Amino acid sequence: MGAGPAGLTAALELLNTTDIVPIVLEKSTYMGGISRTLNYKGNRIDLGGHRFFSKSDRVMDWWLRVLPIEAGAESDAHIAYHGATRQLRSDGQPDSSGRPDPARHDRVMLVRNRKSRIYFLGRFFDYPISLSKDTLVKLGFGRTVRIGFSYLWSALRPIRDVQTLEQFFINRFGKELYLTFFKEYTEKVWGVPCSEISAEWGAQRIKGLSITATVMHYIRKQFRRKSDLSQKSTETSLIEKFLYPKYGPGQMWEEVARQVRLKGGEILTGLNATKLHFDGDRVTSVTAVDAETGRSRVFKGDYFFSTLPINELVRSMERRTPAHVQEISDGLLYRDFITVGLLLKKLKIKEPGSKNQLIADNWIYIQEPNVIAGRLQIFNNWSTYLVADPDTVWIGVEYFCYETDDIWKLSDAEMSALAQKELHRIGIIDEADVLDSTVHRMPKTYPAYFGTYARFGELRSYLDKIENLFLVGRNGMHKYNNQDHSMLTAMTAVENIAEGRLDKSNIWDVNTEMEYHETRETAGEEAEKQVPEPVKV
User: Fold this and answer.
1) Could you give the C-alpha distances from 465 to 281, 285, 307, 329, 495, in angstroms and in order?
2) Mean pLDDT: which of 109-118, 199-208, 264-273, 355-364 is highest?
3) How far from 310 is each of 178, 458, 495, CA to CA, in Å?
């Protein structure tokens, strides 16, 4: 149920490693879930921004089997990731290295440089915070001193029983830096105070990021001899290179869907799973409703994978659900997402010392307190192939909200006007330079770590007892996973089926305060790459 990264990964893994034939039911007409690519008049929108980077060799190899890495952008010596050459598959007429040329071939992964900054008080600050001379000058002497002493205080007297995201941030960065760069933006994203959000969000999303990690990354960078795409020793938030499909993330999942169908799997779109039928503790079938005709169809199966939001899944169960389980399920919350695509003649903000050069950022965090917009993507810098006319600038202005908020109910014209006015007000664009716009709303984009989430373990315990039901993916598990972690949950679930394993704890352990680790061979030899195993920190 669901043709996002987890659902499609499960389908392809089943076809490649078992004799089970998958049937994928997708409510929409597109592949990829929130990892889709939206095409508006030849200008493509990446909903939320999807870097293709993982410290899991298994995931990196998997991606590169589907879309091979580009030729020409960098020499082989600069691509140290071991799978980049081992797993190549050519498309059409590759060059002598065996890699496709993006100018001539479509099925290709680009190597991209990562750059993101914070826009605060009309100035740019590196993100993650670099503590460079430029940053310190912009912060000012007084604030810099306060940040330093605040961090030392937190390092010497950390909060012991960390329960909230606010406590997590203060321990990692000190109170002053938290108040300067983290509090307002995070609360803009989630719509609630950081003191009401579980620390588990921080443990999953930025578990290895701290002032110490940032400083050490900067020092190592000064002595680095070559760029290593694997970036094994780099905290995920600090990576400097990533892979990206020529036409955005949806291209990956459209290609995976094509392979699933070629190998004998079925993918049916426009079908909304509405009822799960049971025999004891086993699911026997699912009823899905056709969005166009309103007719119901019943699909029987031996195993069922759900990427549905958990509250929708529980409501769909045709059996008596314990009151406490229903209460927790109904109390799970989600943050919704709006992207306004703006086609522009140019941006007002420029690279230092340049009059016309487009800034190099992939995305910008908008920290300004007088606007609702939370983040800005510059699609030209993800891939030039996302933009129909290279002489224009194609951006995505992102808003975080609830479906019940007034902003969600604005018309497309009103939403577009709001985005234009806000960016004009803070000096990023001139409204007169807007050529066209489009608006896309995405419900249930971010599973929230508040509401009834504190009792989630009770709900999980109940669902894990349903022997042949596997919850995978971001919404399927109510975990704010990255794309690679969602894929790993699906891969692990398929392995459990193949091995006859009934315990599902290893699925839930993916990205649960985990560190990736590898077993190393003797010095001078290449490391023997293993599937990452979660370890508690």
Assistant:
1) 7, 17, 17, 16, 18
2) 264-273
3) 32, 13, 22
**Do 397 and 479 share a domain, yes or no?**
no
Q: Determine which helix (DSSP H) or strand (DSSP E) holds 423, and give its type and residue range.
A: helix 412-425
Q: Does residue 135 form part of some domain?
A: yes
Instruction: Indicate the pTM of the whole model.
Output: 0.84
User: 293 pLDDT exceeds 70?
Assistant: yes
Q: Does residue 195 sit in the same domain as residue 263? A: no
Distances (CA, A) of 236 to 131, 204, 205, 302, 425: 18, 11, 9, 37, 33
pLDDT band at 71, cuts 50/70/90?
confident
The pLDDT, as a whole number, for residue 177 is 87
Domain presence at residue 305: yes
Cα dihedral across residues 199, 200, 201, 206: positive or negative: positive
Output the pLDDT for position 225. 53
Place of tokens 């306060």: 146
Residue 427: left (phi > 0), alpha (psi -120 to 50), or beta? left
Asked whether residue 325 falls in the same domain as residue 339, the answer is: no
Domain that holds residue 375: 334-447
Q: And the tokens for 415?
A: 């939403």
With a CB cutoff of 8 Å and minimum separation 6, the contacts of 400 are: 188, 189, 190, 191, 335, 336, 337, 374, 446
Does position 224 have pLDDT exceeding 80, yes or no? no
Number of other residues whose CB lies within 10 A of the CB of residue 381: 22
Query: Does position 480 have pLDDT exceeding 50, yes or no?
Result: yes
- Is 106 a domain residue? no
Are 327 and 338 found together in one domain? no
Mean predicted lDDT score pLDDT of the chain: 85
Are residues 477 and 462 part of one domain?
yes
* Number of independent structural domains in the chain: 3
